[in-house]
Amino acid sequence: MKNILVLCTGNSCRSQMAHGYLERLAKGKAKIYSAGIETHGLNPGAVSIMAEDGIDITSHTSNHVDEYQGIEWSYIITVCDHAKENCPFIPSKNAKRIHHNFFDPSKVSGREEEKTCRL
């Protein structure tokens, strides 16, 4: 089975959302993990938005990348520039590394309707 790591700065929003979507898409064919170079807890906004797509991430935890030492990764996906630039070295013989910088939805301010584009 493939092991996929989604990595962000605080493992609270972007990586958690990607984790949820990848679990749904993988349909049990891969083990999905998410982690951060820091831990900021699970973002309630991410939980809410994912629930709207029918994906429950309430059981996810905010984990530090060091917690996953020794796992042989198939893919390491960074979802923010900060994590890519500051992540400690993750040894992996065959991991394909993928990067895409996503805007951090936890940085949006305003009324709830404005934050979720429901105006």
Describe this structure in words.
With 119 residues, the protein is an alpha/beta fold. The protein has one domain: Rossmann fold. It is 27% helix and 18% strand. It has 4 helices and 4 strands, in the order βαβαβαβα. It has a 4-stranded parallel β-sheet. Helix 1 (14-26) links the parallel strand 1 (2-8) and strand 2. The longest helix has 13 residues, at 14-26. The mean pLDDT is 89.
Main sheet specs: 4 strands, parallel
Structural class: alpha/beta
In CATH, the homologous superfamily goes by the name Response regulator
- Reading off the top of the CATH hierarchy, the class is best stated as Alpha Beta
Please provide the ordered H/E string of secondary-structure elements.
EHEHEHEH
Mean model confidence by pLDDT: 89
Domain module tally? 1
What is the share of helical residues? Answer: 25-40%
- The number of helical runs is 4
CATH architecture: 3-Layer(aba) Sandwich
Distance between the termini: 43 Å
Portion in beta strands: 15-25%
Tags for this model:
single chain; 119 residues; alpha/beta; Rossmann fold; 4-stranded parallel β-sheet; 4 helices; 18% strand
Write the layout of secondary structure elements.
Layout: E1 2-8, H1 14-26, E2 30-36, H2 44-52, E3 75-78, H3 81-86, E4 96-99, H4 112-115
Parallel strand pairs: 1-2, 1-3, 3-4
What is this entry, summarized?
It is built from four helices and four strands; from the N terminus they run βαβαβαβα.
